[in-house]
Design brief:
It holds the Pfam family TetR_N. Residues 17-77 form the HTH tetR-type domain. By secondary structure, the chain is mainly α. It contains twelve helices and no strands. Helix 2 crosses helix 3. The longest helix is centred in the middle third of the chain and has 27 residues, at 148-174. The protein is flat.
Length: 263
């Protein structure tokens, strides 16, 4: 499919009858029908029913158009992400935050491409807003007892798990891999010589990308973070000089003065 609107022709619009917002909206429509890679200025112009020069009047090259689309994608992502609430538990905060992230990326693959692939080209405003969201989650973990370093690593670990799950599943779907479907993977091979898998494959996709798999991973990660929090609270706290609080609490006694000879 080389043209985004091959099912019919559109009447050419008058010059100066389009604006930047309509162009960006049309770009999303074309990208969702084809892909970001196949999005081009001529195809977009045909889709919108304008001359290609009308597109270049607002966006001199595709890169500028993609930057504008990324700003829209960031805005949508932030609007759909649950608010971080001080009264909520950190466990529920993490699970709801990353569960929502996965759902958002599943529902809008163009948004996913823009946010995952184009992070180096975020505008300063988009970067600020996304980092404010990260700040709010990490600050919530700190407020609930994690050290700042541990809070950052907790966020990074569960974030990488979530993004990896999203990307892995998408790659397998694009490849039409049978391992994402429990019914199809039964016909992949003769499982009789693999007795453990033979008893599992009808219930579990081997890809590990189902909702059940994702929820299992999130729950196990949170269990590990709970252990980390307990271990952290059991460690002796350090003073500003690097000595433990227990050691700092000890008083240093002066050695008794030596008696002078002959006294």
């Amino acid at each position: 499919m080389t043209k985004a609107d091959s099912t019919g022709t559109r009447k050419r619009r008058q010059r100066n009858s389009i604006n930047a917002e309509e162009i960006v909206g049309g770009a999303f429509e074309v990208a969702r029908r084809t892909s970001l890679d196949q999005l081009s200025m001529p195809i977009l112009a045909e889709h919108l029913g304008v001359g290609v020069t009308s597109i270049y009047w607002y966006f001199r090259k595709k890169e500028e158009l993609l930057n504008a689309m990324t700003d829209i994608a960031v805005d949508k992502y932030l609007r759909l992400t649950p608010e971080i609430r001080a009264y909520d538990t950190w466990q529920n905060t993490l699970s709801s935050h990353f569960r929502a992230q996965r759902e958002i990326h599943h529902e809008d693959e163009v948004l996913s491409d823009l946010l995952f692939i184009r992070t180096s080209t975020y505008s300063r405003e988009a970067a600020r807003r996304t980092m404010e969201l990260v700040e709010s989650v990490v600050a919530k973990l700190v407020a609930d007892g994690f050290t700042p370093d541990n809070a950052m690593m907790v966020y990074s670990a569960i974030g990488v798990y979530t993004r990896g799950s999203i990307i892995h599943e998408r790659i397998l779907r694009l490849a039409d891999a049978p391992t994402i479907d429990a019914a199809r993977q039964r016909h992949m091979t003769d499982w009789s010589h693999l007795p453990v898998l033979d008893g599992l494959i009808d219930r579990h996709p081997i890809s590990g990308t189902s909702d059940e798999d994702f929820e299992f991973g999130i729950a196990r990660l949170i269990c590990g973070f709970e252990v980390l929090l307990r271990e952290q609270s059991q460690r002796p706290r350090k003073t500003s000089r690097g000595s433990t609080a227990a050691r700092g609490a000890m008083t240093v006694r002066k050695a008794p003065a030596r008696k002078k000879a002959g006294s």
